[in-house]
């Protein structure tokens, strides 16, 4: 696999998953970060000092910072890091490349401990590189990557186009 291609895929998947996470859940994930991860997270998304104490604006500030600083992947990785550590500890040697079945065995306890959104973010992180996670995001409805909205081309109004063309012709005539 191509590293740049994988990074683009993972970023797009994070964008899709973050779009489905409520502000309440996103704020709770940020506030639940252990102290050791709060500073790196705040730096990555550009949170100012005291932002973790303002629950009503935390999620909006995180979303704005992720986009403005192009830190969507960093935010996803950091928000799911406690969950990732839990999976590594629980799976032991199998954590290097867990099977779909290994993941399914650990997921219920992880959801209880960290929330479904945290587990979804962790699944995205490894979905391009590890087979068990790839299968998880394609087969398990809880972890499927939501389809992005497709922008439809705007249909030009014929009358507006004719008026624009006439105005251009008139401007050209005036220049001559």
Given the structure, what is the number of helices? Answer: 9
Radius of gyration: 22 Å
Tally of structural domains: 1
Please tell me the overall pLDDT: 90
Number of strand elements: 0
Q: How does the overall form come out from the CA principal axes? A: elongated
Q: Let me know the largest β-sheet.
A: none
Distance between the termini: 58 Å
**Range of helix content:** over 70%
pLDDT under 50 segments (min length 5)?
Answer: none
Structural class: mainly alpha
- Following the backbone from N to C, one meets helices and strands in this order, namely HHHHHHHHH
**Content of β-strand:** under 5%
Write the layout of secondary structure elements.
Layout: H1 3-20, H2 23-31, H3 35-45, H4 55-68, H5 72-91, H6 100-114, H7 116-126, H8 131-139, H9 158-175
What would you say this structure looks like, in words?
The protein has 176 residues and is mostly helical. The chain has one domain. 71% of the residues lie in helices and 0% in strands. It is built from 9 helices and no strands. Helix 1 runs antiparallel to helix 7 and helix 3 packs antiparallel against helix 5. The radius of gyration is 22 Å and the shape is elongated. It starts with a helix and ends with a helix.
